[in-house]
Every structure is written in C-alpha cells, then in structure tokens.
C-alpha cells in the first residue's frame, strides 16, 4: 500500500496543467464528472475512459482502470492531480476488470470520501457491480481504498448527499435509482436500500445526483425517455422523496452519444452543470470527455434547460492561446470547425473561414487594463487572405487587420493592435476574403 501511495504522490507532483473550454480535459478521455466545491476550488472526479484492446477490457465497451482528479480555482485553468485510485490496488476489485465506472467524492469531518463502483472478485458482495470507498485527508489524495465494498449495495453510479442535519445518504442505480442512509463513518449503510419509485417506469435511469436548494431536494438523473439518455430531474421535500418528476435539464446528444452523466454545483454565486459528450471520439461513444455549462433556475425553483456549448465556462485571458474553435457562435455561412489532425484528435480543432464576411465569435476574453502591443494568429491559408479582429459585435471596434500569407504550412502571423478595449470583451474574427483560412488560435501579447 505504501508503494502505491508513493506512486500516486509522485504522479501528482509531475501532473500538468490543462487549459480548457469544452471539453474541459484536453489530454485524455474523461466521463461521468462529479464536481465538488472544496474550499475555494472546484474539484472534478470523472471516470477515465480508455480504449479497450484484446486482453485489456472488452473491445467496443466501456473500459476504465483508474481515476484522476482535476481542480480549478477559475474554471478555466484545470490541474490534473494525477491518478488517485487504480483497479488493481483496491483489495476487493476483480483484477483487470476495467470497470471503474462513475464515481463521487464528498467531505466530512476532515476526510474526503471517494465512492466508486466496480466488479468485486468475491461475487458474494454482488454478481455485477458494487460500490467501495477510498479515504483521503486532502481532496486530491492520496486516497486509501477500504478493504471491502459497502455491504448491500448492488449497482453503479454512487452519489452522496449530506443533509443540513448531518445525515448522509448514498444513492446509486441499477436500472432504477436506489437510496439508503449512511452511518456517521460514511462506509456502511444505516438503513435498508429503497427504490425511489416515483420516477419514470419506462426506460433506463442511472447516474443519480441529489442536491438541495432553498429547501427543495433535486433528484437529477439520466433517463432514456426515447432512444438515448437525457438529463432529467424530480423534486421533493425530503432526501428520500417522495419526488415529483419536474423536467428536463439537458436534451439528448444531437450526435447520438448514448450516455450522459452529470453533477450540479454552485460556485461563487453561479450554478454549473458538469456533463459529458464524446468530443474527441465522434465515432465511438464510450470514449467521452467532460464538459461544463452555466445552469440557471427560474423564480419558482424549476431548472432552465441547459444548451450544450463549446465555449463552456470561465474567462479566457487575452494573452492565452484563445481556441476560437471552442466558439460562442459561428456565422450561418462560410464558417466551420474541424479536427487539426483526424489521426491525432487530442491535438484539438481549427476554425475554418471560407467566405468574405464569415466569422467566429468567442465570448468572455479578459483584456485587463493594459493595451497589448500585438496580436498573433496561428493560421494556414493555401491561397492567402486577410482577417479582421473586432470586439463587441461584427460591426464593433476593429482591434486588428491581419494579412495572411499564402502557404501550405501553419504560420504565426503577428501584427500591432489598432485599438484597445479594456476588461471583458466578446471577440469576433472575420474573414475579408473568399479564400479558405484555417485558424488554430489567437493571442494578444
Ligand atoms: O461510465 C460508465 C457508465 O456510463 C456510467 O456509470 C453511466 O452513468 C454512464 O455514463
């Protein structure tokens, strides 16, 4: 066990930072995000999808062997704290079962309790999945797995909620959604599991996530109302219900990603929905990527439906490499997004402008108070062309005019700024030619 903790610590020491819009994590697959506010940071505990190969998992199915935790103080810069739990270091998990599915984490009395489902080697615990706990003194670990899973829990997708009176509840799913009270020690059930029965009877329900706001308990869950999952919610006056089905939080994936799985947090007066989609793996929906978008409540406490965006959450500094392909809006004509390299999708995307007047809009860029001297754009345009950068609108003040030299390689084009607008700005990059111009990123120095 000591060797395992040392490996986790070393990994965390060398773990890198990633900057993100949607998807949030840019160097690996990630799914089933459980976001939590611990102190002044947001921590996200996702599943870690990998691609199964012969002898490693089941080809064509979910394949997960470990968990990472990520955190951010500003919702833009995410730190990967590295691997926190690995399947073969959990005493009760069937070795090499690659079934480390959707987890959750919660804080209580100075400890962080990480709940995760997997398949036990001893089938007397459960024939399929059960749920175990790993405990840490810090949100990023090191986490020490308990020797045995929680007794009497059969299923996946654990979620923990602690009510105002201090009572903790465990929720999980296995077709239906189940709940039970947890003992003070957080690793044993304090009541018999019950099925939360007032939810839709037809269609799979899973991934429960319960939170409370203004005395209302929101039981949120992915549900297959039609062919694939959408995020729905029910409300009640008690953590164990009864609940009343209330609405849809997010519609089905427009491109057919079968699963969705989410969590909801409030951070610095704004509510956020964390969820997933298969951005880096459009042809295989079991290699997913986590995302986040803002969530709003109506005055009567109902949730406004969230429309997925690429722009996501958080402010982007003007001197960062601004990934315009994670756009807020694109012009109806002449603008599109494509992978930089379809053989290497983690390299990300490019914005392609093909006609005069085609544009891409990217919101919430922080220019601060001091005028940058120049702007750089990483571009590729076989026949050359020219771009214009504006703020506030496609007819707003022009920050820069950028001639793009013809060439078949990516080039960095740098020009001086014509004007400056301080503070938070919405950026517009507009093509002034009918030539194809691909843009990787832009940055103001
Ligand atoms: O990640 C594996 C499974 O897919 C999760 O447990 C479900 O909620 C679904 O997202």
TrEMBL record:
Sorted alphabetically, the keyword list is: Carbohydrate metabolism, Glycosidase, Hydrolase, Polysaccharide degradation, Signal, Xylan degradation
One GO biological process from the UniProt record?
xylan catabolic process
The EC number on file is 3.2.1.37
Q: Which residues form the CBM6 domain?
A: 320-445
The residue range of the signal peptide is 1-20
Report whether Hydrolase shows up as a keyword of the record. Answer: yes
Question: PROSITE patterns, from UniProt?
Answer: CBM6
Please name the InterPro entries in this protein's record.
Answer: CBM6 (IPR005084), Galactose-bd-like_sf (IPR008979), Glyco_hydro_43 (IPR006710), Glyco_hydro_beta-prop_sf (IPR023296), Glycosyl_Hydrlase_43_Enz (IPR052176)
Pfam families referenced in this protein's UniProt entry, alphabetically: CBM_6, Glyco_hydro_43
Locate the site labelled Important for catalytic activity, responsible for pKa modulation of the active site Glu and correct orientation of both the proton donor and substrate.
157
Q: Which domain of life is it from?
A: Bacteria
According to the UniProt entry, its GO molecular function terms are: carbohydrate binding; xylan 1,4-beta-xylosidase activity
What family name appears in the similarity comment? Answer: Belongs to the glycosyl hydrolase 43 family.
Give the protein name, as stated in the record: Xylan 1,4-beta-xylosidase
Q: Tell me the organism.
A: Niastella koreensis (strain DSM 17620 / KACC 11465 / NBRC 106392 / GR20-10)
